[in-house]
Amino acid sequence: MDITSILEEYKKGTLSLEAAQAALAERGRSHTAQTADLGFAHIDLARQERCGFPEVVYCAGKTVEQSVTILTLLMKKYDNIIGTRASKEVYERLLPDFPDVQYDDLARMVYQRKDTTIVNGDRTIAVVTAGTSDIPVSEEAALTAEIMGNKVMRIYDVGVAGIHRLLSRADDIRKANVVIVVAGMEGALASVVGGLVSQPVIAVPTSIGYGANFHGLSALLAMLNSCAAGVSVVNIDNGFGAGRLADILNRMR
Amino acid sequence: MDITSILEEYKKGTLSLEAAQAALAERGRSHTAQTADLGFAHIDLARQERCGFPEVVYCAGKTVEQSVTILTLLMKKYDNIIGTRASKEVYERLLPDFPDVQYDDLARMVYQRKDTTIVNGDRTIAVVTAGTSDIPVSEEAALTAEIMGNKVMRIYDVGVAGIHRLLSRADDIRKANVVIVVAGMEGALASVVGGLVSQPVIAVPTSIGYGANFHGLSALLAMLNSCAAGVSVVNIDNGFGAGRLADILNRMR
Amino acid sequence: MDITSILEEYKKGTLSLEAAQAALAERGRSHTAQTADLGFAHIDLARQERCGFPEVVYCAGKTVEQSVTILTLLMKKYDNIIGTRASKEVYERLLPDFPDVQYDDLARMVYQRKDTTIVNGDRTIAVVTAGTSDIPVSEEAALTAEIMGNKVMRIYDVGVAGIHRLLSRADDIRKANVVIVVAGMEGALASVVGGLVSQPVIAVPTSIGYGANFHGLSALLAMLNSCAAGVSVVNIDNGFGAGRLADILNRMR
Amino acid sequence: MDITSILEEYKKGTLSLEAAQAALAERGRSHTAQTADLGFAHIDLARQERCGFPEVVYCAGKTVEQSVTILTLLMKKYDNIIGTRASKEVYERLLPDFPDVQYDDLARMVYQRKDTTIVNGDRTIAVVTAGTSDIPVSEEAALTAEIMGNKVMRIYDVGVAGIHRLLSRADDIRKANVVIVVAGMEGALASVVGGLVSQPVIAVPTSIGYGANFHGLSALLAMLNSCAAGVSVVNIDNGFGAGRLADILNRMR
Amino acid sequence: MDITSILEEYKKGTLSLEAAQAALAERGRSHTAQTADLGFAHIDLARQERCGFPEVVYCAGKTVEQSVTILTLLMKKYDNIIGTRASKEVYERLLPDFPDVQYDDLARMVYQRKDTTIVNGDRTIAVVTAGTSDIPVSEEAALTAEIMGNKVMRIYDVGVAGIHRLLSRADDIRKANVVIVVAGMEGALASVVGGLVSQPVIAVPTSIGYGANFHGLSALLAMLNSCAAGVSVVNIDNGFGAGRLADILNRMR
Amino acid sequence: MDITSILEEYKKGTLSLEAAQAALAERGRSHTAQTADLGFAHIDLARQERCGFPEVVYCAGKTVEQSVTILTLLMKKYDNIIGTRASKEVYERLLPDFPDVQYDDLARMVYQRKDTTIVNGDRTIAVVTAGTSDIPVSEEAALTAEIMGNKVMRIYDVGVAGIHRLLSRADDIRKANVVIVVAGMEGALASVVGGLVSQPVIAVPTSIGYGANFHGLSALLAMLNSCAAGVSVVNIDNGFGAGRLADILNRMR
Amino acid sequence: MDITSILEEYKKGTLSLEAAQAALAERGRSHTAQTADLGFAHIDLARQERCGFPEVVYCAGKTVEQSVTILTLLMKKYDNIIGTRASKEVYERLLPDFPDVQYDDLARMVYQRKDTTIVNGDRTIAVVTAGTSDIPVSEEAALTAEIMGNKVMRIYDVGVAGIHRLLSRADDIRKANVVIVVAGMEGALASVVGGLVSQPVIAVPTSIGYGANFHGLSALLAMLNSCAAGVSVVNIDNGFGAGRLADILNRMR
Amino acid sequence: MDITSILEEYKKGTLSLEAAQAALAERGRSHTAQTADLGFAHIDLARQERCGFPEVVYCAGKTVEQSVTILTLLMKKYDNIIGTRASKEVYERLLPDFPDVQYDDLARMVYQRKDTTIVNGDRTIAVVTAGTSDIPVSEEAALTAEIMGNKVMRIYDVGVAGIHRLLSRADDIRKANVVIVVAGMEGALASVVGGLVSQPVIAVPTSIGYGANFHGLSALLAMLNSCAAGVSVVNIDNGFGAGRLADILNRMR
User: Fold this and answer.
1) Domain end: B113, B144, B169, which one?
2) Which residues of E touch H (CB under 8 A)?
3) Per-residue pLDDT, B151
4) Which residues are in the PurE domain (chains A, B, C, D, E, F, G, H) (predicted)?
């Protein structure tokens, strides 16, 4: 209802003062996300409506108590809920109340996935990983995309030092709609994959390596400097961000 | 033709030895991009077929002679061709032979755009810029996307220090299919836009600023650490990369 | 008493030699902080008189023994005393002698707050925090300001990725006299708040985040590059410094 | 007028439909800054009302044309206007139309200062500078504060390597209401001044130095790590930001 | 002559005191390189004997005068002499006296190559380059190796973004005895080549790129973190060092 | 068999259709490394044939389970197998099945060395170490080279602060075919050794040191900037990479 | 004995061939430090003669076994011996054999100090420390200087934030012959002391601090950029190096 | 005169009120350096008395006008005066008034040296330089020390890549009282010299080099991590600081 209509209807009496006030407030509110204020956190309760998936909880830096409180509130309201970088203790505290809650040790994710509908039909997200040590980050990406309703194809340990491992999977990768490349050390895989496919490539540098790796800096800089088209980069070890972005891209049409 | 057919037809005599050899070689070659070897450069002549747009020439670090030679070869073969980070001299050397060639001072791009078809219908790419000083990078992004056949909406100078400038354009930005955010200094615009829209956001840090900006590092790090979903990052000042990726995303369906 | 008066009064005999010497020395001494020399530490015993609050003890890097000795000396002399980055052991060692001593687990602060007078009337300090994980630093700031006699308004978890959480609190923030903004990751909150209010904004980057956060560097650089007026920055995770500066600003008139 | 009143008065007829609409819109608009959209820039035309001083133009990265256009618009509307990091060419282009425009070579500021009222009575801002080479940044700070209506006391070349130069001016500095400390190299002056005064200290690191100065990094880090209370930091060489913040602090009461 | 022989011969009288002293001193001197002391430089006149090639002159940071003096001394004594990072002025000053002196604009090398013998028979050094912009560094490497007597195969512009350009040259590269890989931006070429060949790979990062390239840091870190066996790294843009090392490796047997 | 022969033989009937197909496929396959796909890893089973030594397993970042599975597969197939950066637990899990498996505490290497043939006759690799604290990295290099069939000479604790320790061993070092220099702190040993010998020098910076060592950065940068000819660098603490490269160089002829 | 004498005496027969050879060798050896080769370490047994104090053992990165073996060898031969960065376990292992061995918890030094002669008469070394948390590094410096025979004056906790604490001790500091300044955080103390005294100042940055301290980088850079004359810098937390250098300076005459 | 005496003499009348005031003030003033206040600079006119040499003028960042004004004031008052990092224009402006003024192109120093007395007798300062390109910094150090009255021995181009050049000069270097080592690139010379001599070594890293030299960072870090005793470090390219410190050390007795 626009302002004029509200004014008119109020004047006519078809809207009471309270209803008119509420209608005007509602207009404002549609700009304001509906949130639950826990004091230590404002939970966004309109995000699924606005963005297609409820708020995801970053558990690092929060107390177990805080994480559990927030996740409890969300898991009651939504079928599919994700907590990233969560300790196992968070999972164990949730389990009695939420029998469906799951925990992935590698990805350090706690999640509830009651709704397993695949929303994007045949559209697949490929998660391509340079080495076995990169798998924890890859799984965070893959799991995130799956819980959000996507089909995921995992292609692991195909780093560039043995380029034929990658080339032999090139046709598989080309079948995907979106490609996530996860690599540490020199991070070269993103550029090579970017040159092989015409789909968008989401590059995730990992902190795997040592010495002049500087906790992922080498892979990060390499990926940012990729000379291949269609490559963009998320934060070091940010598997979640890559999975979330892949989900967004996979819904584009 | 598959291997069996080639073998059979050679045995039958419908293929000569030379033709059979050629056919087998051809199968291999389809894996190899067709390139023109100029000695100092291998020009990819199959990229439009493979990726939807011909090779783009990065002119920095090349001599004017080299840039002109490569662009000449490409402009003869394709309608729309882009040279990035080009000096005006490259443009002036091309002009006599290519009357359609254009030069954009701000974006430092030389290009030929004979084909102005919009390939993606109503799908628009929004280029949102924090400040006026970021416009050269924004124009590189916008122009790239336009030359590749996209409709571009420019929304400039809406940085977060006056958040209402941005909010008043939020509905316009939400109408775009893909959003490019260009910002220097603290690079906060990417996170704020990422929280306002559900489309993918391509963040381009710029080197605009001074002091603890460290030539774009502040904006780069801020964008990589964005807590908003759907944000990925390209290199500092890489307007071209953002425009190219936006074109790829805009073609997804 | 100025030099001339001392000389005159000495000559007149209204000041004895000792008294004149003392008076002259006193003038010099007023420039020299009165300190208690513990060998390993010089405790400033005139700071409350000079700066409005006694010396605050930075406990990191000190042995428990050293921290306890210094705090004991100060707590005996002053009502309100703060020890920052203190282990719980320091608190437990003080408790038998100082029943009023308190410990805040989140802020890692040990403190005595016998005097709870609010010194600044209605003038409020707003502590605005991007995410729940930033609360330990925020609490260090808020508690510091409170112990020093200020009224504090806490507005937590209003980061820029959901800008409406912040906007819905903008009027509250504008009521404050000074604003502290605490944020990790991309640190964008400082710029956005700086653009919304006309009060001074003290920005505190936190080390919350991972990867290209580089232990708070991303937020620090972003805040230093803020394009909003009135924003200045303290060290990463320096909640105490922000609280102390806010107290100083809140006393200006 | 609040929503209820508007509704009631409209119903009563004391407000026409248009007036009621306007009143409701006005409430929204007060949140939205009024801006002039130049395409390449959105000029904030309500900032003086909102923040006490009109928008300041950062000229670096803008073309001379863009800077002149924006400054022209602002200088027509306001008495006192500042353009920072401006080339002399900008000034020369403005001079024919704005005979009052001035240019400061050291500070690289172009400005119009028609209104020279001192707004803060006796409240003085001290600008304290470590060395002669830091004067360009100091002058940017001092001039900014002066144009905004403050009284400024310049105390230059009192760096810590000869601490008595500083101590002999300590009483002068203590008379100020706000202190700006400008220093390059090791940036130690901020800590020493911070320990001498009880006023807020705004520290401005400069890029003066060489080698391990790393373009101001040494002074920046030193100032951020200051162990003195009441010190906060702005960007390297950001004299303007310091002057602007000092003006804000000087207006607090 | 060993010590015992010298003693014996001196005793016998076949060596005079002076000769015995000289012989003993000579033994010590053989440890000391014979040098020409120019005051501002000690020219090593025994390096060809010791290391297979005379001293190479790094001209950056030297005055033209100094470079010319040193090169003159060396060019008189040896057939093949190299000056790196030399301005054209050095060449022009040498030309009148050394008609054989040459200058390579791209590589910024001044050199005299009177002896063009290929010393290593069929052993070839492959110089593989990612992009056209890397050619100046590649040419410094290639030219260095050639002047030192090696056969060089140049394979330019085969960067990983179009992996087939590289794969189609893999067999050529495998024919080399030593491989130099020159790449800027993400520097991925070194890892991919390292995985394709069993020869030693000398990786040369270049400063080609911009933004998060940080003047070659991205390629440097990527190459240091290469997960391929047999890859070692020289300084950014150090084509000379790579050519020199390749020469050493090419002489191993 | 080349393509022509296959075609001819198929036509003649000496090859069946299946055999001809297989022969053609085999040609392609020889380009593709034969790998065992474990899901979480692609084990390269042709590397010994291709590169002279089987795949080496980097155990950091892998679970014990993953490391054991991969090493089991490789140890069954090959005599000599190396796992680097392995925990002792990996060794203990392998021991029951592989009685020959060994573990080196200092080098953190697990390995099987059934074949102790020296493959390079008299050619020795010298491993020269600056200090005792660098020995773990040196041993990783030395052990790697030994397991691959090389003779290794260890020269430890001859850092440059007592140059005579090094000079007294110079003749020994000159007898080696390849020299590995392992040094932390200022990393100067690489340059000094590089100036003493004409063989190739592989420099390994270590993270030994503290403060401005920045985890090996000081030694890394020093080695990359070495002004001695013939020095190239591998990653910080990468003893394995140095040993592997030395093996490759030692096989050159 | 010089060469001529040896030759002469051999000829005369006063030296046997063996004695002459030994005498000649001895001359060479005097250039070569006499070392004990433990395989993992070359212990310098001539350093006291050459440099005034025996080799000091850096225990970090060495096994307890290695440290104990080296220290045992040295403690047997010399009265005063130092092991830095030693664990208490090293001390406990030495105690049974060396009842005089001592351990300083703060400085993490193990040492034997049988000879307590003060070698430099009245010449004192002042160790001036910014804060209590810097004491561990200060004690390493002070103890080192004392064990080497110097008189040390400790002046602790006189950081610049309360400049009067320092000024009140200025006359004491001026009485010293050499001044060591130990400071973390902003490291400003070195510059202020450097401006107060005319003696040489050895600045030791410490890693005390957090956030933008970056493990001592802030103090290191500040000290390197000191504008005071006579200040030089050693590594972060290198109390030993400062104490050793102060000993050298204190012996100059 | 002490306070008591002043009081007594005033009482007795031997001091007038004014004289007593002056005497008391004088006592305070002795703490305050006497300075000439030029507005933009406070020139220290008591430094020669206090520190043995007048204030040295750092001309970088100052206008030519400012430098000339300050130098004029000092050159009138003192015989020997130094301006560092001065443009030739400063020299040319001074020449008409100060016929003795000199300019050194390499060192970029302007200076007046009317007094050429050698103050330290036979005590020599050795300036040892790695390469010819380091000479400008070396000359700044050498000239500084000479103007201050020291005898300087220059030993240039003896870098570690040819260690025998250095060893052959070791005895010369050992004759010096203080050693300055100037080196860029890997900066290894400081450690090697530090191990050869027992005198104090002042290490000056230079910015000579390229790539991973990062403008002197490699040499700086190497020198800070020197494992040789007696080495301390000044800022990159700070020849002046080294010369000044050497002068101070050379006066110690």
Assistant:
1) B113
2) 31-33, 35, 39-42, 44, 47, 58, 60-62, 66, 70, 85, 205, 207, 215-216, 220, 235-238
3) 97
4) 123-253
Query: Cβ–Cβ of A11/D10 closer than 8 Å?
Result: yes
Q: What share of chain H is helix, strand, coil (3-state, %, to 5)?
A: 45, 20, 35
CA angle in degrees (0–180, nearest 5) for G104-G109-G114? 85
* Mean pLDDT calculated for residue range B74-93: 97
Distances (CA, A) of E56 to B25, D32, E53: 48, 67, 8
C212 vs A60, A66, A236: nearest CB = A236
How distant is the Cα of E25 from the closest Cα of chain G, in angstroms? 9
Q: Which of C192, C209, C221 shows the shortest C-beta gap to B192?
A: C192
Residue A164 CB partners (closer than 8 Å, separation 6+): F31, F32, F33
Residues B7, F25: C-beta atoms closer than 8 Å: no
Q: Which residues of H touch G234 (CB under 8 A)?
A: 224, 231-233
Residues in a beta bridge with F126: F153, F179
CB B158 within 8 A of CB B129: yes
Domain boundary among A113, A141, A168: A113
F109 and F146 co-located in one domain: no
G and H: touch, per 3+ CB pairs < 8 A? yes
Contacts of G156 in chain C (CB under 8 A): 39-42
Q: Closest Cα of chain A to E157: distance in Å?
A: 12
If asked whether residues G233 and G154 sit together in one domain, one would say: yes
Instruction: Identify which has the larger pLDDT, E38 or A83.
Output: A83
* F85-F88-F93 Cα angle (round to 5): 115
Q: How far does Cα E54 stand from its chain's mean position?
A: 11
pLDDT in tens, D65-98: 999 999 999 999 999 999 999 999 999 999 999 9
Q: Which residues of H touch E220 (CB under 8 A)?
A: 211-212
Residues E19 and E74 in one domain: no
Query: How many contacts does F have with G, using Cβ atoms within 8 A?
Result: 60
Q: Are E195 and A160 in contact (CB under 8 A)?
A: yes
Query: Do G200 and G89 lie in a common domain?
Result: no
Cβ(B132)–Cβ(B157) below 8 Å: yes
Using the beta-carbon criterion (under 8 Å), do B132 and D33 form an inter-chain contact? no
Interface of A with F (CB under 8 A): 131-135, 156-158, 162, 164-165, 167-168, 184, 208, 210-213
Please tell me whether residues B135 and B233 are part of one structural domain. yes
Q: Report yes or no on B118 lying in a domain.
A: no
Domain that holds residue E22: 3-32
For residues B14 and B41, state if they share a domain: no
Q: What beta strand segments (E) does E48-159 contain?
A: 57-58, 80-84, 102-104, 109-113, 124-129, 151-155
Q: Is there a single domain that holds both residue H22 and residue H52?
A: no
Nearest C-alpha of chain E: how many angstroms from H82? 24
pLDDT in tens, chain D (253 residues): 667 777 888 888 888 777 777 676 655 444 444 778 888 998 888 778 777 799 999 999 999 999 999 999 999 999 999 999 999 999 999 999 999 999 999 999 999 999 999 987 889 999 999 999 999 999 999 999 999 999 999 999 999 988 888 998 999 999 999 999 999 999 999 999 999 999 999 999 999 999 999 999 999 999 999 989 899 999 999 999 999 999 999 998 7
pTM of the model: 0.91
Q: Quick check: ipTM above 0.85? A: yes
pLDDT at H22 over 50: yes
Domain at H212, CATH number: 3.40.50.1970
Asked if residue A134 lies in contact with residue A236, where contact means CB atoms within 8 angstroms, the answer is no
Same domain? H131 vs H183: yes
Grouped pLDDT means (10 residues each) for chain C, 253 residues: 76 80 60 73 82 90 96 96 97 97 97 93 94 96 97 95 88 95 96 94 97 96 94 98 96 85
